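[09:14] KT: can someone run the structure on this one? pasting the chain below
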Amino acid sequence: MEPKYKRVLLKLSGEAMSGESGFGIDRSMVDRVCAQIKQVVDLGVEVAIVVGGGNFWRGRKALDMERATADYMGMLATVMNSMALQDALEAIGVETRLQSAIEIKSVGEPFILRRALRHLEKGRVVIFGAGTGNPYFSTDTAAALRATEIGAEIILFGKTVDGVYDSDPDTNPNAQKFETITYSEILNRNLKVIDSTAASLCRDNNMPMAIFELSKNNDENILKVLCGENPGTIVKE
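[09:31] RB: done, structure tokens below
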């Protein structure tokens, strides 16, 4: 198996961490994802990860709370998911470092780009927790930002849907899936598969993204994308 990329950033949705329950952390699902990540690392690919927090908390839905406070709570949820990923990866022998955009010294390192790059060069998986560290920015945007900073060749976006559709496939049985699409099309069509700020950042920095389903029934998709297949949708400008 020959990988197509040398350095990638994997973006995991919080919902993908919760499995079928939709809330919290499903350890069996996390273990399946981590087994794939180990296979990727064993192929010599450098891997960074950004994980969402929607399995615990979505700040933008806390309408009775000040937005910045709600968003900071969401960042802490991503740190919990990051810790769970780190524990599962290290349990199977994958050396891992957690860097948090919000300084939590007892949990992980602060985000320092040069240190993150050094970890990647040494074959360690680097997990970026707490998003960008700023309210009003999603973890989609954090993934686009960190991928650009570390010089990743592609963002692998594992979600609970199997790609980009022209409408919501949950409510429209006739929704059409795109095999490829541009960031400009996503923005012009107002498709909600990724945050508009993230789409703009990826477009402006020519950062491709592969969006695919990550579930117990599709637990080889990370490897498929890595080796040049397209089980979901490829987004590029």
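[09:33] KT: thanks! The chain is about 40% helix and 20% strand.
[09:34] RB: yep, looked fine to me
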